[in-house]
Automatic annotation (TrEMBL):
It is found in: Membrane. It comes from the Eukaryota. One of its GO terms (cellular component) is membrane. This is Hexose transporter. It comes from Hexamita inflata. Residues 1-23 form the signal peptide.
C-alpha cells in the first residue's frame, strides 16, 4: 500500500502535467492575433509571433538548468510549493494586455517555473515509488500532460465563438497551479510527519538493542583473561577494507556515456517536431482546409487521439522493454515526417487529407514511445550521485531542441517540407544512437539500474 507521501507526490506530478500541457498550448496564433489588435502590433510579423510562442520554451530551458541548484538548497516538496505559487502569479499577470514584449517576458518566466515543476516532480515520485508503481505514475503523468493540451484546445474552441473572452485561456493553468500548491503544502506536512515517525521508530529500535546489553553487563562478570589480546591490523589492509565499503563510482567513460544518452534522448524527443505540431496545429489545419473552425477542430482531434493512444500504450509499458518501444516510435514518427515532407514538396492532389491522416498517425507513433518513455527514463536511469546534474542536462537539452523547433517553424511556413525532412534526420540520428547506448530500465529498481551502469 502506498504511503500518504507517495500518493501526494503523484498528485503533484499530475497537477504539474496538466499545467504543463495547458500552459504550453494556451496561446495559439488566433489568440495572439486578438492580443495584437489590443496592444497594436503586427501579428503577421513572424519574428514577434515566433518570440511569443517560443518564449515559454526559452524560460523552460533555463528552469531545467537551474532546478538542480534549487533542490540543493531545499527539499523537493518545498521547491514544488514555491514553483506552484509563482506559477499562479505569472498566469494571472499575463491576463493584463500591455505590450508584446511584456507578454514575452511573462511567458519566459512562466516557462521557467513550469519547467522547474516538471523537472522536480518526477524525481520526488521516483524517490517514493517502486519500479512497478513508478511506471504507472509516469504513464499517468503523460496522460495528464496530454489532457492539459486537449483541455487548452477545447477552451480555445469555446473562445473561438467570441475572442473578446480570450483571457479565459489562462483559466485552466491557474486552477491547476492552485491545486498543485495545495497538494504541495499538504505534502510538506506529510513528509515532516513521516520523518518524525521514522526518527521515533529508529530511537525505539536503538533502545531495544541497548537494553539486553545493559542487563548482560550486570549479571555476567568477565576477567581480563576472557578477552583476546588486541589485534594490530596492517595499514594497507585497513585501506582495502575501507575502499570495499565505499560505494562504487562510475568511471569517466561510463559517465560520458550516460551524459550522451541524456543529451541524445532529450534532443530527439523534441526534434521529432512534436511541439511545433502541438502549438501550430490549428494554424496548419486552418491553412490546409481554409477554415478557422476546421483548424481548431483538427487540433482537438489530435488531442483526443493522444489521450486514447496514451491509455492503450500504458498497457504495454511494463511488459515490453523500454528501448523496443522507443525504437517503434522513432521509426514510426520518422516515416510520417518524411511522408508529410513529400506531400508538401510534391504538392499532391488532396494534400490536406493526407497531411491530416499522417499527422494523426505521427501522434499515435509518438505517444506509443517517445512521449511516455523519455520522461520515464529520465526519472529512472541516472545514478543517484549524478541525478540532479544529468536530469538538468536532459531537460535543458530537451527544451533547447524545443526552442529550435518552435522558433523556426514560422520562418519556414511556406517551405515546411524542409523542416519535416530535418525532423526525420534528427530523430533517426539522435534517437537511434541514444537508444542503442541507453540502459534498459523496464521492471528494475533504481539500485539495479545503477548496477547496470557500473557494468558498462
Amino acid at each position: 500500500m502506498l504511503s500518504k507521501v507517495a500518493i501526494l507526490s503523484v498528485f503533484c506530478l499530475l497537477a504539474g502535467g496538466i499545467n504543463y500541457g495547458t500552459a504550453l498550448t494556451n496561446l495559439p496564433v488566433q489568440i495572439v492575433t486578438k492580443y495584437a489588435s489590443i496592444t497594436h502590433f503586427d501579428p503577421d510579423n513572424p519574428t514577434i509571433t515566433s518570440l511569443i510562442e517560443v518564449s515559454f520554451c526559452i524560460g523552460a530551458a533555463l528552469g531545467s538548468s537551474v532546478s538542480q541548484l534549487i533542490t540543493r538548497k531545499m527539499s523537493y516538496p518545498k521547491a514544488l510549493m514555491m514553483f506552484f505559487g509563482l506559477a499562479i502569479l505569472m498566469n494571472v499577470v499575463q491576463i493584463i494586455p500591455i505590450h508584446w514584449i511584456y507578454l514575452v517576458s511573462c511567458r519566459t518566466v512562466s516557462g521557467f517555473i513550469t519547467s522547474g515543476i516538471n523537472s522536480i516532480a518526477p524525481l520526488q515520485v521516483a524517490s517514493q515509488l517502486s519500479a512497478h508503481h513508478r511506471e504507472k505514475a509516469m504513464m499517468m503523468y503523460d496522460f495528464s500532460l496530454n489532457a492539459g493540451v486537449t483541455l487548452a484546445y477545447l477552451i480555445h474552441f469555446g473562445i473561438s465563438f467570441d475572442y473578446n473572452y480570450w483571457q479565459f485561456t489562462f483559466l485552466a493553468p491557474i486552477l491547476c497551479n492552485i491545486t498543485g500548491a495545495l497538494v504541495a503544502m499538504t505534502l510538506i506536512k506529510a513528509s515532516k510527519a513521516a520523518r518524525q515517525i521514522q526518527t521515533l521508530k529508529k530511537f525505539v529500535e536503538d533502545q531495544e538493542e541497548k537494553e539486553p546489553l545493559v542487563h548482560e553487563s550486570i549479571t555476567v562478570q568477565h576477567s581480563a583473561s576472557d578477552y583476546p589480546a588486541p589485534m594490530s591490523l596492517d595499514h594497507n589492509l585497513m585501506n582495502e577494507v575501507q575502499n570495499a565499503v565505499k560505494k562504487p563510482q562510475l568511471s569517466r567513460k561510463q559517465l560520458n556515456r550516460i551524459k550522451y544518452v541524456a543529451f541524445a534522448i532529450g534532443a530527439f524527443q523534441m526534434l521529432t517536431g512534436i511541439d511545433a505540431i502541438v502549438m501550430y496545429s490549428s494554424d496548419i489545419f486552418e491553412t490546409e482546409f481554409g477554415s478557422v473552425r476546421a483548424g481548431i477542430l483538427g487540433s482537438v482531434l489530435l488531442g483526443v487521439v493522444n489521450l486514447i493512444t496514451i491509455v492503450v500504450s500504458a498497457q504495454f509499458v511494463g511488459k515490453i522493454q523500454r528501448r523496443k518501444m522507443l525504437l517503434f516510435g522513432i521509426i514510426g514518427v520518422s516515416v510520417c515526417n518524411i511522408s508529410i515532407g513529400c506531400c508538401y514538396l510534391l504538392n499532391i492532389n488532396k494534400r490536406e487529407i493526407y497531411i491530416m491522416a499522417l499527422t494523426v498517425l505521427f501522434q499515435i507513433f509518438y505517444c506509443s514511445g517517445p512521449e511516455p518513455l523519455v520522461f520515464m527514463m529520465f526519472s529512472e536511469m541516472f545514478p543517484e550521485e549524478h541525478k540532479n546534474q544529468l536530469n538538468s542536462l536532459a531537460y535543458s537539452t530537451n527544451w533547447v531542441a524545443n526552442i529550435l523547433v518552435v522558433f523556426t517553424f514560422q520562418f519556414f511556413f511556406d517551405h515546411l517540407w524542409i523542416l519535416y525532412f530535418f525532423y526525420a534526420v534528427c530523430t533517426l540520428g539522435f534517437g537511434l544512437s541514444g537508444v542503442a547506448l541507453a540502459p534498459e530500465t523496464c521492471g528494475k529498481s533504481l539500485e539495479e539500474i545503477e548496477q547496470q551502469l557500473l557494468q558498462w
